[in-house]
Amino acid sequence: LGSTATLANPPITEVSTFSAVNVSSLAFQWQANSNPTGTVYIAEISNADTFPAALTFSSATLLTQASFSGLVSNTTYFARAKAKNHRDIKTIYAALGSTITKAGPPGASAFSDVTPTALRANWTANDNPSGNTLYITEIDDNAAFASIDQTKTTTALLADFTGLAVNATYYSRVKARNLDGTETSYTELGSTSTLANPPSTAVTTILSVFKTSMTAAWDANANPPWTVYRAQISTDAAFGAIWDSQTTLSHAVTFYNLTPLLFHHLRVKAVNNRNIKTAYTVLPGTSTLENIAPRAPAGLNGSWGKQFTLSWSPVVNNADGSATDDLSDYFIYRSTSSGGPFDFQIHVSSWINSWTDPNSIAYSAYYYKVQAIDFNHNTSELSNALLSAQDIKTEILASDGGMTLLIPSHLLTKEGSQLGEDIAVSLTRRNDQETGKALTSYEIVVTTPAGQKIEHYRFAGPVECVFKIPVQGSGLFQAAAEISPSDINNTGVFYFNGAEWIRLSSSINAQEKTAQTPTQRTGLYALRSTLGATEFTILGLEPRKIFTPAGAPPNNQLAIRFANPKDSQVSEARIYNLRGALVAQMSVSSDGTAYVWDGRDSEGNAAPGGVYLYQLKAEGKIFNGTVVLAR
Question: CA 22, 23, 24: angle at the middle one, nearest 5?
Fold first, then answer.
């Protein structure tokens, strides 16, 4: 009769049917239902409960479980199993229920549609089926997502976030949720920044403008404080050539080294946290101002009360002689030395022309200088230095320190000058005159407030001309030649009268290494090597032979220069005609270095033209010679 096999029992459902459910795989199990070991089971899954052949996966196994891979994420899968006996007779299917695969974590993608207040977060599906996979997207301004700013839930692969802060960095992340509510881990989408707003024009764009600089400002237009701005300036409206470009966190920037009196165009753009720039905003431009400085203040004088009061004349001209109409302030400086350094003390408004030093003590020796400044920040040269000792003097120091002029201050004011207006005095080194025995040479120059040089000017009173003697090894300044210490007394001060160098009476201070002489004349002076006088000596005549009383200085009077190292008495200083008759007594010049005759007789009448004799008596000697008076 042969053999047969009893039928297998249909499998029955396990208490927990599904296990190891993942994105693209799952496993399920069943009970053997008393089937012996070795029974074959056919397990099937399908994403349709009718198990069509095209959508069904099948697996034969001796176990009471089966695993399937290559599945679709976030998809419902139905499971069933049947058994077969040794004769391949199958039982009916046992329905084992259904489950849903997990969703796959979304893939990261770049941000798009970023504006100053919005952005779009994008991601990829990562094979998740469309339509039934939910995505939860979050943004926050904190990388740790400490407080979520906004959350969007969507089945799309993007989310738009609006109402964001301008130029702010936002971090984003997204996760997927499957049909049964199981969520994936977060996928980090990175970070981006909203754009900055283009700057807008400020109410006042040009905060300040000067001769070579200007400060431009703009409105932030709701940009936060950390927004970077890039401002540019150009004389070309098309900005083909950029004069300067500056980057700043401020809402204003100052441009320097501009060209005076040129129109300058301005523009600015904002840059966000990711270096994405806005378009340029064109700002109203303007012209730089003139570049002419005021003249240095003149007419410095002073007076002592309980403190020293410094005064000066108003500055009315620029350095080029033009009238100044934009003077702003005067700066006042003080030093204990004529060579400085001069320390700033105070500034006073342009309509103020005096200042009392609150720190001065009666007759204390300070040096003061004044400087003028206009509204364009053009500053004048410093004035001459005024010495506030008991005899108030202006001290003018050559730039190399080789010569100093000490001038009673009133001689430089309009009340005390020969011109009826303030005068300025300067010393100029004249290397071209340092030939032969000349050690140093300087020119005393007088100018008016308008900058005009006055030739042959004579001070209304004597001024002291002090030369530094260049002694070997002193290194005080650069001279044409230096002398040994033993020859200090063999130096003298000379004046050039237009034709020749005239020796002047000078006193030598060997300890201070100076040669000093009083004078009233401007022009060329020199310190020269010469034998020093040991007794009363005639140094020379000025002019040398002929003078014209009606002519121009210095030829309008006779001056007989002398040296008097012993300070001896001069018993006679007279003018005689050729017949030996007395014509006039000569007088001592105001600086005490010469006897002078103005061409008049003792009655004050003009002496006729002709040859005259001069005669001086001193130290038991007679000094005489002839001179020609021309009419």
Answer: 95
